[in-house]
Amino acid sequence: MANSxxxxxxxxxxxxxxxxxxxxxxxxxxxxxxxxxxxxxxTAHRLVRQLAGHGLLDAAPGxxxxxxxxxxxxxxxxxxxxxxxxxxxxxxEDIQQVLNQNVNLAVLDGWEALFVERLxxxxxxxxxxxxxxxxxxxxxxxxxxLMAHQDKQLQGQYLDQFADPEGKGSTDAARVLLSETFHxxxxxxxxxxxxxxxxxxxxxLGPRQRAVASLGVVVPLREMRLQALVPALQTAARGxxxxxxxx
Length: 247
Fold this sequence. Notes:
The chain contains nine helices and nine strands. It is α+β, with helices and mostly antiparallel strands.
């Protein structure tokens, strides 16, 4: 029920408040949090106090607010990606041992790839894919691998709404990338996110051969070996799919 002048509900405001923490920022001053959540300071203060009482937020002296341990506990206990991460981790570790580079696991959420796990080592190349981070489908090999293996209706909806704020992509280019990815069985993007890296991703296929996840690596351009990388990733992806299908 809405109970504010703006018409938004208490749940709406709580969601905005919790979602207002930007990526890589673990704490905000109450005033900044209220501004980012588009809430009056008094409303934000009241909600923070109530949420802190349940351990969902942590209100420190001096007005500093951070996500609470209880929130982390609930999310990790009930996350729908928990089974996927558990199934994928042994295969991701094997891939990382061989490549000594970044390995990531992503799912499709709307028109973005949402990264649910990542393995990285000191000395590996820069990787913009971070756990709980997002990237547009057309700018990530993970996103292309996911979208290229969805049904035609969903792909059509994606292409109908396609827009690149930076003006570097087009609907026709996205359509070509999806077609190439589907027929190759893997996605590759060279120097799109970082000019010195190459992203490779393969789909983890579920029922009806639709991608339920993507498994990918980010490697230096000078070490790019498609003939070795792709079969290893595809073998690992099939292994993940088998584990997901187990009772």
